[in-house]
Amino acid sequence: MDTKKVNLKKGLEEDVFRTAGEVLQSGGTVAFPTETVYGLGADALNPSAVKKIFEAKGRPQDNPLIIHVADWEISPYAKEIPPKAQEMMKAFWPGPLTIILKKTEIVPLETSAGLDSVGIRMPSNEVARALIRALGHPIAAPSANISGRPSPTNYERCVEDLDGKVDMIIGDGSSIVGLESTIVDYSVSPPRLLRPGYITYEDLLGIDEEVVYEEAKTRVEEEEAPKAPGMKYRHYAPKAPMTIFRGETQKVENEILRQIDEMIKNGKTVGVFAPIERKSVYNGKNITFVSMGTQSDLGEVARNLFEGLRRFDDAQVDVILSEGFQEVGVSRAIMNRLKKAASFHIIEV
């Protein structure tokens, strides 16, 4: 497939969106920026178009997609919108919040992965909303990467993963959030937080104190159908196996240093993923150090997370040793992604 690639430099270029809209209307696929991560979009109401997303990504067919809207009228796609869900929309849309609702028949089962519910989000990114308007109705879009790999937060990573697999790629800088949207399920009672994100659990409780979050429920068993993206399969993962170390700072540093020496002695190339404040700790070791950002700014850590994981692939390290975080606020979302990237291999020290 010959992928049309456009990296926007002058804002919303009308001819680009005319072309992209035609691609989507004809059942094609377009990768595009959002404030969370880059998405791979197709007409959410066209079953054959939606299937092309799964094919391009190598995505399991039982992994549901989120539909992205550009305006507030979602009643054609949702059977009912509970009052608290409406309050969530008013508080956090447009933005990085997905709300799961009982779907109407207009949303194909291919989009919802056979479920009677669908996740809906209104992105704040202007390019994303312009693309949705160019199509004329919702776009179904997971992250624009090969399934299981770290999500792309810039144009270059989209091209790396999807060139030759999709019809068009639109670039427009780096994602400002860097983590996929928070997902809260209002198709059940009480509502459940299924995927933490930049909009935190604490933020949600400020609107609806009945929202429940159970960490053990964020990874479903093989025989179960996931209700939201990122719940069942290995996600966000670099090529090398990764271990997370969590605990008191000095103990974490000491254990990582010990493991570095042991890995190098065994002929392994080692990557270390940690806040920039820790770089001096690992100086002098023959490793690839990738900074998460400063530990005093979790928003920066979130923005850097996926690109940092991809840099270990660039360096072709054999193993990755990552520092972890306590899980509160945005760090809950950061750890959610890190744990899945590490296949839940965590060492408490």
TrEMBL record:
Stretches assigned to the YrdC-like domain: 14-199
Entry GO terms, CC: cytoplasm
Catalysed reactions listed for this entry: L-threonine + hydrogencarbonate + ATP = L-threonylcarbamoyladenylate + diphosphate + H2O
Gene3D superfamilies documented for this protein: DHBP synthase, Threonylcarbamoyl-AMP synthase, C-terminal domain
Enzyme class of the recorded protein, top EC level: transferase
Positions with a binding annotation for ATP: R59, N63, S143, S151, R195, Y236
InterPro entries cross-referenced by the UniProt entry: DHBP_synth_RibB-like_a/b_dom, Sua5-like_dom, Sua5/YwlC_C, Sua5_C, T(6)A37_SUA5, TC-AMP_synthase_SUA5
Main location: cytoplasm
Binding sites annotated in the UniProt record for L-threonine: T36, H68, R121, A141, S181
Pfam families given in the database record: Sua5_C, Sua5_yciO_yrdC
Domain of life the protein comes from: Bacteria
PROSITE patterns, per database record: YRDC
EC numbers, comma separated: 2.7.7.87
Role played: Required for the formation of a threonylcarbamoyl group on adenosine at position 37 (t(6)A37) in tRNAs that read codons beginning with adenine.
Protein name (Swiss-Prot/TrEMBL): Threonylcarbamoyl-AMP synthase
Organism annotation: Proteiniclasticum ruminis
